[in-house]
Amino acid sequence: MTLPALAPERARDLVDRLRGHRVLVVGDVMLDRFIVGRVTRISPEAPVPVVHFQSEFTRLGGAANVAHNLAALGAEVILVGVVGDDAGAERLTRQLRDSGIGDAGLVVDAGRPTVEKVRIVTDRNQQVARVDYEQDADVGGDVERELQQRLAQLGGRASVLLVSDYLKGTITDGVMAAARTLQQTGVPLLVDPKIPHLDRYAGATLVTPNHHEAESATHRRIRSDEDARQAALAFRTRARCDAVLITRGESGMWLSSPDSEGAIPAVAREVADVTGAGDTVVATLALALAAGATQAEAAVLANQAAGIVVGKFGPATVTIAELLDRVSPSPPQPSASRSLV
Predict the structure, then answer these.
(1) With CB atoms 3.0 to 4.6 Å apart as the test, which of 66, 85, 126, 192 could cross-link to 279 if both were Cys?
(2) The domain spanning residue 220 has which CATH number?
(3) Helix boundaries (H) for the chain
(4) How crowded is residue 108: how many other Cβ atoms within 10 Å of its Cβ?
(5) pLDDT tens-digit profile of 2-40?
C-alpha cells in the first residue's frame, strides 16, 4: 500500500503555514567540521593519502542541525543541550545565533568537550578520515538537573517537542521524564532514536528509526514493503510508541500509525550526501504536525524535504521556497514566438 501524494493545493497550504511555530529540540548538539584538500599521491611513510589543504568550514550537527533545519523553515526554535567550556562551544553558539537560534537552553559541562566531528574530505567530496571529539557517557548530577530545569522553563509554549538522540550523553532517563511531563500538556513528542535507548522513548507520539535501526530493534530483515509493515508494527510494540516512520533510503519510507499505514516512495532527483538527512526529516515532520498536518501528510512532506537535502553536501537545510517548488512546481512558461519574416 502506498500513501497518497499531497494535492498541490494542500501541500502549498501546509508549507505556507510552517512559519512561526515554536518547537523545542532537546538532544546532542555538535559541530561538523570539514577539512577539504586535494589528493594526488600516497604517503611514503604509510599507505595513506596525502591531503593538500585547500579550505575548511564548519556546520551545525546533531540536534543543532535539527534546530537549524527548523529555523530555515521559519520555526521559532528552542534548543536544549550540553556543550563544553571550550572553543567548540563558542563556535557552535556563534553559528546558532547566525542562524537565528538562541543559546538559552545550552548547559555547560566543563568536564566534557563540545562534541565535534572533523572530517577530512577530498575536493571530490570523498571522505578520507574522521576525528571525533566527544565524551559519550550520560550526563548526571547538576548538569542533568539543569537540563531538566531548562526544559521546564523554556518548553511551556512549544507546539511540538522533538528529541534528537545521538548517544552522546544528553538523552538520559531524567531528561526524557522531563520531556514527557511537557508532553502531558497535549503537545506531540517526536524522537529521532538510537536503539540502545529504545526503552527511554516509551509514550512518544512518533519515532523515526532508519532502516538499520528498525531491523536491529525488531530482529527482522526489511527487504520489501511487507517486511517494513511488519517491522513497523513490531517496533511500535517494542518502543511502546504511538507511531513509527521508518526511513529506508532509496526505498523511501514506511509510516505505521493508528490512523494510517503505507509506503512513501523516494523522490530524490540526485544524491550527493545523506549526512543529516534524518535531521531534515524529523524537523519537517515536527513542523508539519504543528501546522495542522496529519501524520500521513507530514510524512509525505518530510519525504519531499529529504529528497531535496540529499542533493547537498554535508549537514544541510531546506528552505520554504525549495519545498514549495518541490511540492507545487510552477508550470513551464511557453517560449515566446518569433516571426520568421
Answers:
(1) 66
(2) 3.40.1190.20
(3) 8-16, 63-72, 87-98, 141-154, 173-183, 211-218, 225-239, 277-290, 295-309, 320-327
(4) 15
(5) 999 899 999 999 999 999 999 999 999 999 999 999 999
Q: Which three cell numbers stand for residue 298?
A: 507530514
Domain of residue 155: give its range: 8-36+44-327
Cα separation, 248 vs 180, whole angstroms: 28
Is there a domain that residue 272 lies in?
A: yes
Please give the order of strands across the beta sheet that includes 261-264: 106-108, 76-83, 22-27, 160-164, 189-192, 206-207, 243-247, 253-256, 261-264
The fraction of the chain above a pLDDT of 70, given in percent, is: 93
CA distance 280 to 333: 31
Per the structure, the count of domains in the chain is 1
225 is known as an active-site residue: no
CB 244 within 8 A of CB 198: no
CA neighbor of 27 nearest in space, from 144, 171, 156? 171
Q: For residue 43, is it left (φ>0), alpha (ψ between -120 and 50) or beta? A: beta
Q: Among the options 32, 273, 279, 325, which is catalytic?
A: 279
